[in-house]
Known about the structure:
The protein is mainly α. It has five helices and two strands. It has a two-stranded antiparallel sheet.
Amino acid sequence: MQDDLSAVFAALADPTRRAILARLRDGEATVNELAEPFAMSTQAISKHLKILENAGLITRGRTGQARPRRLAAGPLREVALWAGEYRRFWGERYDALDDLLRELKEEGHG
């Protein structure tokens, strides 16, 4: 899982790739459609797509001659699970801080 997470985080580190994923939330798209909003060649977009595909974040379909890309949610679920462990950690810390502040207030310090 850690190697998969590393590949996903490396893919997500680039703002262009994050923008591509955001676009794919709305549905599948071809390379040309994905390249439209960017000031870069379709070859450059294709390199970004390859990284996203290698990380498992997108899949390539086939519609006639077109090869639309689709968002693959599985790796993002793994990221959410990993981050969830830290959410729990911080939640416990905030609960402890709340307890301390409540105790201080009851003792007349606040």
